[in-house]
Design a protein that fits this description.
283 residues; alpha/beta; Rossmann fold; seven-stranded parallel β-sheet; 10 helices; 7 strands; 51% helix
Length: 283
């Protein structure tokens, strides 16, 4: 690609940080969003002069627009090569007991965040035809939860299902401008977002009928999932392929034990999978 520049949201740790390293190693100019000035200074020092921090929260549309203006000035008339919508987090707990504000916040970050970023950076990717260079691409970081509904992960699953539906519509709309939209949907990855899964709320809900099952689910998440978790470099490889391949796949799925834990459960009858989960959780 001629436009060796990329915006990565949520670049302070994990997949975003590792992807930034990957693109910098290949000579790209990387703009990475962080929410704290301290992280901006740390990343600038660690990643070097071709990394430019963007200070915004994906829930702040005005700050994202300001960051897009900052990137436009830096690119000086060239199109942006790619936008990687990586920023996100996990809300967990039984849906019937969840505070509505938690679900709203989950959707605000994981769905409206990529929506706001796509709107802000679309002109730089190619909807502004006055800019020089080839159209860029949008890579949406989804999850196995984008096609599967895990118990006690309803808010996260809802957000990723919504992201995937929105991404398919966006891809078809942006064909007008030659901008492609790809999905990278990881399973368990050794990053802080999964370590936070240890705080799934077993104490908060321990006195409810869900208490014992939540404990079993949290144990499953923090043992089986983390033991087999892939390194973030594996996801960064797929992001790199999605951005740079001449014929990118629409969907990349870096998933540990993929056939056993993802492909097979999605081939089996849903009721059969339900019964298996009920047995595991003690329902």
């Amino acid at each position: 690609m001629a436009n060796l520049s990329v915006v990565i949201t949520g670049a302070s740790t994990g997949i975003g940080y590792t992807a930034a390293q990957r693109f910098l190693k290949q000579g790209w100019q990387v703009f990475g969003s962080v929410r704290k000035q301290a992280d901006a200074e740390r990343l600038q020092q660690e990643l070097g002069e071709r990394f430019q921090p963007l200070l915004f929260d994906v829930t702040d549309a005005g700050a994202i627009q300001a960051a897009a203006a900052q990137v436009r000035a830096a690119l000086a008339g060239q199109k942006l090569g790619a936008l990687v919508n990586n920023a996100g987090y996990v809300v967990s707990g039984p849906l019937l007991l969840l505070d509505e504000k938690e679900l709203q916040q989950q959707l605000d970050v994981n769905v409206f965040g990529p929506f706001r970023a796509a709107q802000a950076f679309a002109p730089l990717l190619g909807t502004d035809r006055s800019l020089a260079g080839a159209p860029g691409r949008i890579v949406q970081i989804s999850s196995v939860a984008g096609r599967t509904g895990f118990p006690f992960m309803g808010p996260y699953s809802a957000s990723k299902h919504a992201l995937e539906g929105m991404s398919e519509s966006l891809r078809r709309e942006l064909m007008l401008f030659g901008i492609d939209v790809l999905i990278v949907a990881p399973g368990a990855i050794a990053t802080p977002i999964w370590k936070k899964g240890e705080e799934i709320g077993t104490e908060q809900y321990s006195a409810t009928p869900y208490g014992p099952a939540l404990k079993k689910f949290a144990d499953l998440l923090t043992t089986r999932a983390q033991k087999s978790a892939l390194p973030p470099e594996r996801v960064a490889d797929d992001i790199w392929q999605a951005v740079t391949s001449k014929r990118p796949r629409l969907r990349y799925e870096p998933i540990p034990n993929k056939f056993r834990d993802y492909t097979l459960p999605n081939l089996l009858p849903r009721r059969l999978v339900d019964r298996g989960l009920a047995k595991i959780l003690g329902f």
